[in-house]
Design brief:
Length: 252
Amino acid sequence: MIRLLAILTLCLTALSARAQEEIVLGLSQDEVAISATFTGSEILIFGAIRRESPPPEFSDLGVIIAVAGPNVPTTVRKKERIAGIWVNTRSVEIEIAPSFYAVATSGPIDDVLNPLEDLQQAITGDRVIRAVGQDAFSTNDYTDAYARLKEREDLFQVLEGEVSLDEDTLFHTSIALPSKLVEGNYRTRIFITRNGQVVDQIRVIIPVFKVGIERWLYNLATEQGAIYGLLSLFIAAVSGWAASAIFGRLRR
């Protein structure tokens, strides 16, 4: 009976907070342009929590910010040593795999997000990566390996405690975008939680696209493949001829 009352109290607190607290969001930039000299970027995400009444008592506020790049299905292979040679023995198709993913929190993620909310919202890395045939409740070695590979390239970031929260009202953080970005829409989600339960969330899209010569070459390669191939051969031939001419003059 005591446990039931505690659960009802927690639910009522969450519903009350949901009605009283809302996110007001700001971004330092609403798009990212990839040029030939692009070496990465940084997005400042900031905002405030609007309230119609004082915040609930005896509950902890948390802020979670997640940025996900376009999904890029891929195959993860397992290597084993057979007769002294490393060979691919098994492979698993990853059907839901963001090309970039960063999640920043205002505190330890276990404190600001409970497992049930994580399962429903798919916030942590274990929940955003899915292999073919894998259900939402399980993880496996292949999805873990994919996450580790992305972490080495700085394309998978877990930033616990990197969201600054002032007086339970103002919050901000910065997300570093590396140079190896895939073009597309980057989904940004911001959550506020009370005792680990989501009470409000907001979603925005940050477009990432190529500009200048990068855009021209990309369009040429995808829309005019034959011309792109001939142009590549021509450039290679001219470069080879120029290098040969320069070295020939140096030998004289």
